[in-house]
Amino acid sequence: MTATVRPYSPTPSPAAREPSVRISGVSKAFRLPHQRYSTLKERVLHPFRSTRYDVLQALDNINVDIEPGEFFGIVGRNGSGKSSLLKCIAGIYSIDAGELTVRGRLSPFIELGVGFSMELTARDNVMINAIMLGLSRKQARERFDEIIAFAELEDFLDLKLKNYSSGMGVRLAFSVAIQVEAEILLIDEVLAVGDASFQQKCYDEFQRLKRAGRTILFVTHDMGAIERFCDRAMLIEKGRTVMIGAPGEVARRYNALNFGTTVHQLSEDRLLAGEGMTGPVAIVDGWFESRDGVRVAALASNEECCACMEVRFNERIDEPIFGFTLRNEVGSTVFATTTDHGHGDTGTFEEGQTAIVRLSFENYLTPSRYNLTPSVARQGAGADALDLREDIASVVVHGGRFTGGIVELPHTFRISTR
Asked: What is the pLDDT of residue 277?
């Protein structure tokens, strides 16, 4: 296997429409030694100590093209390989295999403030860092006031950076970095410690850069930001691509992978492989019904509701476990249950049979839209679903009070005095 990195080439003409970043079969591994030496003396005194090591596969055959002007999100759990991928693109890490091509000048927002001296003032650090990032002395002087105004640090210019809070340091570093005239921006959770108003200012800046045709690769754990800003997104787990697609779909898969938000789940290998739910069981339909058995898309608050699924059996299944998960609009699980929770036996189903499964419940939900995910699992531990259909149906609950909660439970107040 070979690794090729093409770190820079002139931006192609619009007619060419070559990807700004092309990642083809990229892999990266780190060797973690069992025995670490902290000094040369230790190495000399103990030359025959074990030199064994473990291999951490940070990236495993990543393939994706990012188009010019695209706002591309990269999400995954801690340790999944997101930041390693950005550092490979930035040239901080070499790659072990594959090919990585970048067309345009890069500005990495990965380790903001690298090069800052804690013993110097903000005034001195802005000039030094701006020049390190590629601005001329004249440009740095001309943009100095703009940098400080964006960071909102006019009153702290002559304070040493060692006396800055972490948020103030990030604001200063970000304000300098956005002055670099680059076609491609690599952004890695740089706003995690910023306050809400500064984060909004930065998001407005991202939108300005996007309108200007810049290509942005954005690593974050904030699914709201992914859905708000990104054109496409990629989910990575254990260095492997789980899926690439619309931001909303990637956000839902991330939540399922991270929080286990359904009562049944695919095994990790099938999830990573992106397998469809075909096999011995197929959920062919899902819907909501009113109290009188009519399919509905909306229900009044406090009106009895019924969640339903139609299941086709392609082989004999004994005592399958049927489950329902209800989520709200932001993907939080409101209610989840299975027939394994005290329902008793579900029966035996032969090949070719179809079953209709209904779950009735009192509708204490507050006004919003709710999505239904039905699932069927094999008897036993029930960890792996035979079939599962994400958000197959939805219902809008209306007519209740907006209390700020998810449900409005029947309740009473009792007030007493002493």
From this structure: 47
